[in-house]
């Protein structure tokens, strides 16, 4: 294979009770990339559409992730890359991760998959480091593996993939406001009460169980976040109203995607997801804030060839 | 049915990363009870062997749990109860819970099971309240349901049962020392760092996943407790040596059972469990402290008719 066109999915991280460990992969929204084998070593970004991002490899998330992988593989040839961004930066649904995940999966595919998907995660994390200043797998893990991913720990990195119950849909509201990552980090408590922590890990345990047993109602009962949401929701206008409307219209649960500003609602079936989307639109139309709402299944595939 | 003889299993609660939420049911050790239907309303304890416990119903854990159930059922008859204790009080493997769980399951069985096992848990918790001054399901849930149990939350009570991977064995060391519950509670931190909490819930999520996928090695990697063990181990002489020996001899993980003093080691297969038991015995023989060591499978049945 000399060339590949891939879809690089958006993702939801910090999934309520799974703050900092649990994410999911969307299939309805994502970037596209075209990667071409080149006789010239290294990685060159030849074109970017949809966003004002640096073409210089070492200043670009996909560039850095791709170079980390190439450095590891030590190839006699290289690649040219076109990036077509669809996911807005700063939306809270893993824009940079889609790029970081896409390039490493794409190169690996062209080469006939010398590495497993899990083995690709650390290289994508190099791209995330450029974007956020920290090594984390919250979004690159679901983007690469698909489904739900649990980052069990970082020393060493261990990610567990769990396929999604088939009827799970996600409704996403993206209010087009800027939430500074530094601000949303600053409000996180350094310490939490043992009581809250126990409540959170009881819910996370229950959520993981619900994924394996496809118990939608249990998933809903577990979708609470006692840690980040109470602090971070203040950056998202009308968060409480959106959540109330989502739950009133049948969503299993609702929370902040990543560190915001996007809000996700998990729903059983596309009809409920649409109803939730329609009613969230009504709420947000009254705020005067520009926004987009969309619906997606959870993708069990992660980055895919298109 | 007019009479039943039952086995009331010992249990391990506070299972490392599952502090306050995760427990398991043993099959190798437990009390026995004989429950007889009587024309006289109420519950009378006619005999107790193996422990110096009150015969007065309202001062006895089994008595209080049984009466809570009888009050709910509003029967025209009653029961007589014989208790044969084998689990030592204060051992940390759910002695009081075995009694509380046994009586409610036993009465329910005699009546042809009008309530589900899960519905019985709150009545057993009344007995636990007498024993410990708090309503908790840590031990009564696994004793009643068997397998592994996750107490997702208390408002309302929700317990999830997960069957045990078939090759799981538990080695238990019971050092015969007294650890005051009040002391072991006092050392628990009121607050924990967000970092520790995330690490703990990553491990709990991984452990739950490992139970469903029967991934023994994953179970082992998740068996860490950053919260209670570092504080509570100081009450258990030579805890660190026992843990080291257990892990060196192949245990998947090792931690404090309940609030101690018993120590559990989770092992894949009976041979490893025996090897761990033998080597723990060697360590503890040198302490001058009286102790018992035993091995058990995880029981998926909970309280059973014998």
How many DSSP-defined strands of chain A? 12
Percent of residues in beta strands of chain A: 25-35%
CATH-derived architecture of the largest domain in chain A = 2-Layer Sandwich
The CATH topology name of the largest domain in chain A reads: Ribosomal Protein S5, domain 2
Radius of gyration of chain A (CA) equals: 19 Å
Report the span from N to C terminus of chain A: 14 Å
Quaternary status of these chains?
A: homodimer
Helicity of chain A, as a percent range: 25-40%
Low-confidence stretches of chain A: none
What structural class do the secondary elements of chain A suggest?
A: alpha+beta
CATH class of the largest domain in chain A: Alpha Beta
| Main sheet: strands, sense, barrel of chain A | 7 strands, mixed
The string of secondary-structure elements of chain A, in order, is: EEEHEHHHEEEHEHHHHEEHEE
Name the chain pair with the biggest interface and residue counts per chain.
A-B, 38 and 38 residues
């Amino acid at each position: 294979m000399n060339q590949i066109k891939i879809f690089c999915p958006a993702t939801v991280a910090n999934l309520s009770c799974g703050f900092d460990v649990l994410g999911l992969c969307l299939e309805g929204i994502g970037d596209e990339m075209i990667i071409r084998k080149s006789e010239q070593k290294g990685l060159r970004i030849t074109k970017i559409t949809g966003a004002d991002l640096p073409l210089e490899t070492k200043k670009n998330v996909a560039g850095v992730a791709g170079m980390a992988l190439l450095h590891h593989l030590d190839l006699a040839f290289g690649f040219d890359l076109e990036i077509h961004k669809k996911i807005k930066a700063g939306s809270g649904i893993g824009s940079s991760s889609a790029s970081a995940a896409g390039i490493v999966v794409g190169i690996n595919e062209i080469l006939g998959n010398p590495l497993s998907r899990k083995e690709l995660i650390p290289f994508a994390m190099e791209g995330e480091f450029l974007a956020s200043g920290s090594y984390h797998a919250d979004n690159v893990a679901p983007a690469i593996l698909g489904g739900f991913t649990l980052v069990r720990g970082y020393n060493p990195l261990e990610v567990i993939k769990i396929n999604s119950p088939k009827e799970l849909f996600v409704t996403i509201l993206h209010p087009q406001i800027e939430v500074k990552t530094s601000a949303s980090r600053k409000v996180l408590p350094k310490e939490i009460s043992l009581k809250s922590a126990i409540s959170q890990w009881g819910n996370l345990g229950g959520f993981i169980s619900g994924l394996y047993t496809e118990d939608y109602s249990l998933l809903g009962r577990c979708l609470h976040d006692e840690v980040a949401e109470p602090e971070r929701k203040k950056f998202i206008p009308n968060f409480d109203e959106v959540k109330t409307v989502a739950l009133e219209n049948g969503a299993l649960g609702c929370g902040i995607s990543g560190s915001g500003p996007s809000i996700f609602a998990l729903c059983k079936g596309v009809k409920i997801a649409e109803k939730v989307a329609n009613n969230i639109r009504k709420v947000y139309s009254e705020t005067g804030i520009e926004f987009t709402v969309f619906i997606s299944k959870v993708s069990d595939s992660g980055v895919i060839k298109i």
